[in-house]
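Project standup — Tuesday

K.O.: blocked on the structure for the chain from last sprint. Re-posting the sequence here as requested.
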Amino acid sequence: MLFADLKIFRPALLAVPAALVAASLAAVFLLAGPAQASSRIKDLASVEGIRENHLVGYGLVVGLDGTGDSLRNAPFTRQSLQAMLERLGVNTRDANLNTDNVAAVMVTGNLPAFGAQGSRMDISVATLGDATSLLGGTLLVTPLMGADGEVYAVAQGPVAVAGFSAEGDGASVKRGVATSGRIPNGAIIEREIAFALDDLSTVRLSLHNPDLTTAQRMANVINTFIGGDTATATDPSTVALSIPRNGKNAVVSMLTEIEQLRVSPDSPAKVVIDEASGVIVMGKDVRVSTVAIAQGNLTIRVTETPQVSQPNPFAEQGQTAIVPRTNIDVDDDAENRLGLLREGVTLESLVDGLNALGVGPRDMISILQTIRAAGALQAELEVL
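H.V.: unblocked you, prediction finished:
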């Protein structure tokens, strides 16, 4: 019966017109286009109040193989070591400490939102003194405090270091940074930050990239999905949500559904330039008015090729002398011509035009800044 069914349906499939198949595929791609250009609200905004909190602490790393702080150059390490030993019942006030297996470090971490007491978090460790490596070290018990001065976590554990360094009498090698490391799950949360999310009557979504159009689109999508005037765009970076009281966990249930909705984000035309590295990033909406561009540099090369002049083999007198020979080349880029960019050209046309002139990244930065100064660049120019 299975093979008979296949024979029956095969002629029907072959009889479908090719134009209908092409039209169906075109419709599928048209429907898939906006979905690919859109993003989830979860990726575009964060819920106000659901955030991390920075923690910081000061501690000691022990067990280093001679790569710790020199106590003479790091008095804070000596004082911390003496204070720690005194708490353990060891008096070292009058002793001449000369160990190099201890390093003073700063410990940092981010307390996660709704971090429960007893759960763990990752921490980072970095040296304060002249220690050369934390490889093989162990962090001793270190309280981590918040901005309010309260202790929210306690850290301890072996430090994982990605970099290393080694040196001898005639050579040295260094890879990565050996004076900082991480301790995965190295801190235990001792205090929770109270935040009653489900008791809120209004929740605000904070956009990662503030924009009026994106905020309004987000509010429209939420209202279409839920109904009514649940969402309101109050400013370019905030969308306020009114929580309907229809039972327990109303806020969590509503946010779970909303964060999966898709919105097509909008952004202003912008050109970002990093002069230090020569990186240029231009948005797709960048436009340029009609403008003529010429790029050229004056290059002068001076080459010294001295020659040695010697007397004849049978000359009675004479001496060897060095005769200078100087060659000067001047390149004024006379072959470069003006390039014309038409009204409202796209980003692709702008890049193609600048590349046709043989413009490098450094010169392109100067050209973009000059175009902006001439009022022909219809975009925001940001220099890092």
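K.O.: great, moving the ticket to review. Residues 1-36 have pLDDT under 50 and may be disordered. The chain is about 25% helix and 35% strand.
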